[in-house]
Amino acid sequence: MRVLIGEISSYKAIVIARYIRELYNDVVLIAYDNKRAIRRFHTKYADLYVHVEKEDTESYILKLAEFVRENSIDFFIPVHSDYIGEILLHKDAFGHSLDYFGDYSDYIKLHEKDKLMGIARECGIRVPKCFETIESAEVPFVVKPTNKSSAKGVRYCLKEHDRDKLKSMNGDDRLHNICQEFVAGQGCGYSVYCKKGEILQGYGHLRLAEYPTSGGSSVYRKGFLHPSMEDVVRRILVRVPWTGFAMFEFKLTPERELVLIEVNPRIWGSINQALEDGIPLFSFLSSEKQSFVKQSKSSTRRTCLAPQVFASFFVYAIKGNYAPIKDYITHRKSVSRDVSLWCDPKGFLSMFLRKL
User: Fold this and answer.
1) CA-CA to 117 of 20 to 30 Å: which in 108, 281, 331, 348?
2) Residue 346: CA count within 13 A, CB half-sphere
3) CA 184 to mean position of chain CA atoms
């Protein structure tokens, strides 16, 4: 079996490559990237590496599709969130390698926040209150792009004087943004691999640290199950019969209630937490039928993304929030790093070279 994964300088791709290499002996793992520097510095877990030149997004996607066809790729696993939509628009060009993934029409219903919020409200799910304009929004509120993830382009108005900065946004920026109530609480999520809306594997996690520390990506987490998590996810999936990966992001309020913030219908940043806790999210690579693996409530395992987690701790300390640091020190023996400098030095270095 031949599997193509990339961009391999992404820590998510490295995590998955390691997982596949350790569990699936019959896989030929081919890694790709569009960064020239990665040709020499990339993870040790791939069997082959290819550089795919990127001139523009559409031609880049078509080059990948051509490579898939010419090299008899059985499964194509893209991880970069910026390309998933374009890849699904050209899904037919990838043959059967994307059969484990859903269609663009369902992807958009989950990915675009305004569409998702409408579906969630119809299902009776608690979501942030929406405002028509920045001028009419009640402080505190958040302005975020309707079609981006990982806190990209998110702006906060926590005090009245912040409103003037957001008013300066031009017409195009406003057109593609959604204005929502700011929900105080701790970030958590329920992540799934599903088929036609049926959850085949699921896992809940709690964010212990983010970078940036206000709504950024998860860099330190642990397993966590809220009694309402799976129910909320199933109610959405009844309306949108998605096939593929998805992470349902929530805020856990001080009253221990869940508020659905967004859905990322793709491979998510904290995927290592689920894999380290034994959830077989990639069982579709095997012909053997895999039953649902129940998440352990007693697991103390934690995962982190280094060195970003330490930069996050520094900012938390400046703000006077020492809880994430204390938790890390207490559980340091059970913390697994997404990518290890000692075990995979070239893979670790590639995460930084991708920024060049």
Assistant:
1) 281
2) 11
3) 21
Closest listed residue to residue 204, CA positions, set 273, 306, 108: 273
Task: Kindly report, residue by residue over 281-324, the tens digit of the pLDDT.
Answer: 999 998 888 899 999 988 999 999 999 999 999 999 999 999 99
User: Contact 353/339 with Cβ under 8 angstroms?
Assistant: no
Does domain 129-181 fall under CATH 3.30.1490? My reply is: yes
Cβ atoms within 10 Å, residue 115: 15
Q: How many CA within 13 A on the CB side of residue 106?
A: 20
Enumerate the domain spans of the chain.
2-102, 129-181
Contact 81, 151 (CB under 8 A): no
Pairing of strands 141-145, 28-33: unpaired
Looking up tokens 């990838």 gives 94
Residue 151 has pLDDT above 70, yes or no: no
Contact 331/302 with Cβ under 8 angstroms?
Answer: yes
Closest CA to 303 of 205, 189, 202: 205
Asked if residue 153 lies in contact with residue 144, where contact means CB atoms within 8 angstroms, the answer is yes
Question: According to CATH, what is the number of the domain 2-102?
Answer: 3.40.50.20
